[in-house]
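Please go through the sequence and fold tokens given here and tell me how the chain folds. Record follows.
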Amino acid sequence: MTATAAPTSDPTDAPGIHLSGAGLMSLRHLARRGVSPSTRTIAGLPGGIVTRKRGRGSEPDDVRPWSEGDDRRFIDRNATARTGELHVRTHHDERDRAVVLLADFRPSMLFGTRRALRSIAAAEALTLLGWRIVGDGGRIGLIAAGAGEPSVVRPAGGERAMTAVTGALAHAHAAALAGPAMDDPPLTDTLALARSLLPSGGHLVFASALDTPGPDFESLITALAERLSIRLLLVSDAFERARPPGLYPYALPGGDRGTVHARRGAPAVDEIDPRLARLHACGVEGLRIDVEAGPESYAPLMERLDAVL
């Protein structure tokens, strides 16, 4: 009798556990809802928001008659010769919005009690934000941090960039699921990598539950926040916020096992998470992403976040 191999499981059979690149690509329609042309910038490189910066900028903007106090270096020779009066050329800043998404796929993120794993929710929210950014002309990059070497996609623009990002997310998540059970490596090395990918004034958005971030995490991210705009998507599972009463066995990567007895307590109060409060003190703003809510609920949150990047 000849043995036959068992059929390979299809990732789409367990959407809450396995991450599909095609599924992330399909979130584009959610990300683009409610986006109007009025949200687009009129700067040289389109981004989401126009902000005033110091300096004259580098992109030609307009030509106007010279007035007292104007720098003669910016006199427009053609307009001056044509009109017989001094004219100067004004400039505006060329805005390039570069955003790196940091997805935490370390072992502790491969946990979930409703709808999906925390790592899945992190990828969904970051993908929604990525689609909004490239849709408005920004550049998007990715770092997917797991137990091994991180997956990196350097910032680029357009649909091709999001194709690379969603593919890298799916590949990195599959590798995280297939990896051995082990303790979380610190996030500090990943933050240092993000710093190398972004220019000063760039944007870093990372999705994590902040389990064991590392002993130097807060000092490093405080220093990094002086150079970059950093936002946190705090991924939260319903079990973390309100545990039903009962006995819960657990096993640690080192082999230790035990049981936690959860008793019935007071209803959970919707208050600021202490992890968000600590990051706020470091100069990093954040918002909570509830795993059980799903992409439909994440989309308006990502629209609000996109407006401040």
